[in-house]
## 1
Amino acid sequence: MKTTAVERADLARSVLSVPPLARNADLSLDVEANAALIRYLEAGGVTTLMYGGNANFYNIDLAQFAETLGMLQDKAGADSWVIPSVGPDYGRAMDQVAVLREHDAFPTVMVLPLNFPATPDGVATGVRRFAERYGKPIVLYVKNEGYITPELAGKLADDGLVCAMKYAVVREDPSKDALLSDILQKVDPDMVISGIGERPAITHVTQFGLTAFTSGSVCVAPRSSTALLHALKRGDVAEAETIRERFLPLEDLRDGISPIRVLHDAVTLAGIADMGPMLPMLSNLSGDERARVEPVARELAALDASLADAA
Ligand SMILES: N[C@@H](CC=O)C(=O)O
């Protein structure tokens, strides 16, 4: 596992996968299933694993947070980079520093965005205090308009407290995004990652100059998502658009039902690894929903497997 400090080049090296977390029936960690998903991603060329929303780190308790860090350190490949998440609330994030000190190998963590009422000044202060206590620059996750101002985000970056920003404000038309434009006046685009999967990734990279993208559906189709990243890097937008199309049936289901729940069960239904039950406050798909997701997930995984066969 990568243990060295984050460099700009690290961000663009791989699609930043955002995997679900596999659990046994009693909600304990299913180590073998998590390892199987990690191996599936790595075999598809994905070496960055960010455990955040799709793994429901929002609701993980402190003991299982520690256990998960140990498991990820143990199961990630030698060249892989694992980014766990902390928060989303301030007190919990500060408490998690003690656990991170016992698992000091991780180069950074992402601070999850809080849905409870918050102010930009309060968020900037909370992130600053967390990063100072942690002692390493963090990944700032901007998911909503008004969460933090471009100026405050830029100040955190200038002060060396932020090594990357995950930008995930959903827009009807991602090419029209005044907030992102303003952020890029204050934060180096090399530090900013498109954070909403394959759908807006091409626009974010080609029009705004973002450095790479995060994806949940990469956990079903790692080769395809990696091919999309490579196409973008060599400027082949037409090829990138063609690859992106493959993801839209699953992304449509995710957006229509629940991005996190559909991904969790899609990994199971595609036969990649059994993710098991979801940690409260989330729950697995209904029978009807599973019936809609299964063929789509299987088709995407099969398409991805055909890329391996062709290689
Ligand atoms: N939310 C996006 C990207 C990850 O954060 C996804 O799940 O595809």
Note: The two ends are 26 Å apart (CA to CA).
## 2
Amino acid sequence: MCDGSSSWKESQLRNYDIPLKSVPKLSFDDPRVEQLISENKPVIITGSDLVYSASKWNLEYLEKHMESSTCTVIMSPNHIFKYFDEKAITPAMKNKFVPPTRKVSMKISDFSKRLNNWKSGEERLYLQQTLNNTVGPAIVQDFIKFRWDWITAIQKKMAWGPLTSNLLLIGMEGNVTPCHYDEQQNFFAQVKGWKRVILFSPEHYGCLYPHTVFHPHDRQSQVDFEKPDLNKFPRFEEVQGEEAIVGPGEVLYIPVYWWHHVESLLNGGYTVSINFWYKAGPTVDIIYPLQGHQKLAIMRNVEKMLIEALKDPEEVGSLFRAIVLGRYT
Ligand SMILES: CC1(C)c2ccccc2-c2ccc(C[C@@H](CC(=O)O)C(=O)C(=O)O)cc21
Ligand SMILES: [Zn+2]
């Protein structure tokens, strides 16, 4: 339903049994914005005009100006789009791991047609296309008009690494990207429609039970927010989230290593977002006590080192248990 509405309602949010605080929403010229970013804390930034030149990026405009290029579209049998790394599907894993989604290439006009003719029960679609010079001259013109001065000033001030990619995301209303963390700093710009982002600080690692580092779902939480298995994941009950509902023209800073669950609001029409992923800066001086994201990086390295040493992922669990149970408990 093409919805030109100018706001959202509670009934458009999915129900999870998770206590939520609100992420602060501040104007781009408020000094607290840079303060929060420097502390690796999420913040919704208004009035930045970061992607103002993309305000007109609805499907008919994109169809018209991206006609020639084919886009990557993720298809899912349900509303969940859980990311997985194809390269991590080893022969041993082959028969155990069932990919929850499939990736197809299609023209944006085909994507648009399927979206408009979609019927309940059919596969859902999620277009995610890296913005590069194959998207056509008009789109490139809009892209160069992003407020690169503003975001580059922040990148420099925070000593972040280079911009690695911009992803154009067009999702169906109700689509969900389940809880995961990324290893890059992220400026998440909302262009059309509303998205709800539920964030958890890296310290919640113990409550969100990420898949093992070599699993195709590495970095994704094992917990199904819609029906959490509290026998397998008892500490999920302790989790406390921060909620950001972002609309057109707003930018959400998603700090590196912060967990985030993202949903396109129910009955809100399709959503358009553009993310800006930057390599995180180097951890210059190690200050104790270590912060959550530093411990996360250490745990990842320990897991990787053990897998390299033992070769067999099954052995890793029993070795960790031998080290910890009755000794570090
Ligand atoms: C789920 C999907 C489509 C996907 C499938 C297969 C490979 C990669 C990805 C991928 C990567 C990023 C996003 C955007 C966003 C979540 C959101 O907006 O839904 C997010 O998490 C972020 O900006 O960090 C979404 C996806
Ligand atoms: Zn992400």
Note: The mean pLDDT is 95.
